[in-house]
Specification:
Blueprint lengths: L2 H6 L21 E5 L7 E3 L5 H6 L1 E5 L8 E8 L2 E11 L1
Length: about 90
Amino acid sequence: MDRDEELLRGRVYGADHDDPRRSPRPGRDYAELVGGPLDGLLLDITGWTAADMDAGVVLETELGRFGGGGRAVYDPRPGDPTRLDWSGDAP
C-alpha cells in the first residue's frame, strides 16, 4: 500500500485530510467503498433507503482514470449492504 492509499483508509468520502470529522462519527451508518480509486473510504449512507442503495453511487474523484472531474462508479454488493464494489470510472 502506498502513502496515498494509507492516508485514505478509514476516512469518510468527501472529508478533507485536515477535517476533524474525517473519521466515522457515532450514530451514522457507513458503507465501505471496495476497489477502484476510492478503495477503503467510507461513504455516509445514513438515511438511505433500500432503493437508494440498490441504485449505487457515482462519486467525484481526481484519483480515477479520468483525473480531475472524473467519477468512480460503485454498485451495491449483493447480500452485503455495508459494501459498495467499484464497477469502473466515468468522465
